[in-house]
Amino acid sequence: MATELLTEKYTDALDGVLHCYDRIILTGSIQPWCYAQGMTGYLYGHDIRIFDYVQFAQPLREQICANAAALAQANGLEIEYIRKKNFRKEDRIRAILDERGEQPGLVHIFSALEPCFSYKPWHNKQTGKTYLKLDSGKCLHYYFYFIHEQLGLCYLRVPTWCPFRLQFYCNGHAWLATQLKQKGVAFELLDNAFAHIADYALANELAAKLDVEQLHAWLDDLVQQYCPVVPMLNASTGSAQALRYHWSIWQAEYATDLVFRSQATLQAFYPLLLETLISAVKPADIATFLGRKLHGNYQGEMGNRFNQRWLGSRLKHQMGPVSIKLYDKFNLILRIETTVNNVAFFKQYRQVQHRDGTTSTRWAPMKKTIYSLPPLREVLQAANQRYLKFISAIATPEVGVEKLHRLAETQVENDHRFKGFNLLSEQDATLFRTLLRGEFTISGFTAKDLRQLLSDKNPGQMTRLLRRLRAHGLIKKVSKRYKYYLTEFGRQAAATALKLREMTVIPQLALDCHQAT
C-alpha cells in the first residue's frame, strides 16, 4: 500500500503547497582573471610587466572606492564600516527598511575588511619564467544592499582588489512575490515565506519559470553600476578583447512549503515527528533523499543536527556539501529545504566535451554555471519529495497503530494461531535482547544458536518460537538455509520494546515507589 503523503492526508487543513527557490548566492568572476595562468596571460597580452601587477591593480581599486563614495552621496547614504565580527547586516537592513519602505533603489552600503584571494608576482629561477601565483590576504569589501524592481531585496559584495570576484544574493520568494503582484494575485508574505497565496497553481508555475538569461542581463547591469572595473578596461582596450563576468552558483536553497491554515494542526504532530526523525534517520536514508547510494568508502561528513530558533524548530540532515532541513516557520508552515554548496555533487544527463575535441551525452557532474539553475531545481525538488514521502510514513499515526497490532495481537497463519508479544514481560524482553545481539545482526542466527542462549527452550519449543516470530514479521529466513535475520520491523520493534521497558516503565515505577515510602 502506497504511503499517504502529508499533502494528501491534510488536504482540507492546508492552504496550499509551494515549491520555490529560496536563498540563491552567485559568484561573478572575470574571465580569464579568475585563475593565475589566465591573469598572467592577460598581463603579457597587454604588455604589462608581471612585477607591475600591484601598479596595474591600484587604479582599479581607487575607481571602485570612488564609485562607492559617489553612489553613497547620490543616494544620501553614509558608508557604514563594520568592526564587530558578530554584526548582523540583515538586522540593520531590516531596521532601515522599516523606516525607508520597500521602494526600489539603493538601501545601504556596508564596508568591511575581509579575506580575499589575489595573486603575487613570482620569478622561477630554474625555468627563468616570470608569472603570477595564487595568494591570499585581506582587502576592503563593499556590500551594496538594494531593492531590485524584479528580484526584491538583494546585495552585491564587491572587493577592492584584483581579480574582483563578486558575490550576489537574492531570494526566490522575493522574486516570486514581485511576479504575483504583477499578475494581480493576492498573497501574504512573512519574512521569506508565503502564509497565503490566492492561486498556488499559478504561483508554482511562475516559480518554475525563472528566466536565467534575464537574470544574467540583470547581473551585467549591476556590474556596470556597482563595479565599474570591467566597463573601464573594455573602453580602454576595445571590444575585441572585451572582459565579462562569468556567473556561477555558490549556494542554492530550494524549499517545499506546506502552508497550514492554523498553527494547531501543524503543532499537533510536528513535535512528535521531530523526536522520531532525530533517531530514525540514518546515513543511508540521507543518501537516499539526495538520490545517492552510500558506499563504504565514503569519507565526507554526514549526520543530523537539531536547533531551536525563534522562527521555529529545525532538524538538519547533512551529506557533504548538501543538506536537507525540516522546520516549522512561524509554527504555521512546514518547510522542507535542500541546500547545496557545490552543485557538482549532483549528476546531470548532459553533453560532455572531451580533451580530444569529441563530445558525448552521458551522466556527469552538474556544471556550476547559473544556466544550471533549471536542472538543479528539478533535482532539488525531487530530493524534497523523497523526504516528504519518508516523513509522511512517520507522521501518520495509522502506521504506528498497524505495526503495534501486528506485534501485540494474535496472528493466524495456515490455520495456526500465534499469540502476540508482551512488550513489558521479562520473557519477551529476554528474547528481544537476544535477537539484538551484534553477532546475529552481522551473521544471522539458527535455532541452535538461540537454544544455547535460551536454555529453557527444547527443540520443539524453539521451532514453535521461530514460526511465531516469522508470523509476526519479526524475522526472515535465508533461502535454502536454516538461518534467520531480524527484519527491519523486527529490529525496530525489539529496540522500542526494550527502550520502553528499561528506560521508561521501570525507572518511573521505581521513582513512584521511592516517593511513596
Shape: elongated
Average pLDDT figure: 90
Total number of strands: 19
What is the CATH class designation of one domain? Mainly Alpha
In words, what does this structure look like?
By secondary structure, this protein is α+β, with helices and mostly antiparallel strands. The chain has a domain at 410-516: Orthogonal Bundle (Arc Repressor Mutant, subunit A), CATH 1.10.10.10. 42% of the residues lie in helices and 31% in strands. It has helices spanning 6-9, 36-45, 53-74, 89-100, 172-183, 200-207, 212-226, 229-237, 263-280, 283-289, 373-395, 397-408, 426-435, 438-443, 447-453, 459-471, 488-516; strands at 14-31, 80-81, 105-124, 129-148, 152-159, 166-171, 187-190, 193-197, 244-260, 302-309, 312-319, 322-329, 333-340, 347-353, 359-365, 411-413, 416-418, 475-477, 484-486. Strand 12 (322-329) and strand 13 (333-340) form a beta hairpin. Helix 13 (426-435) crosses helix 17 (488-516) and helix 15 (447-453) crosses helix 16 (459-471). The protein is elongated. The chain starts with 5 loop residues before the first helix and ends with a helix. 25% of the residues are buried.
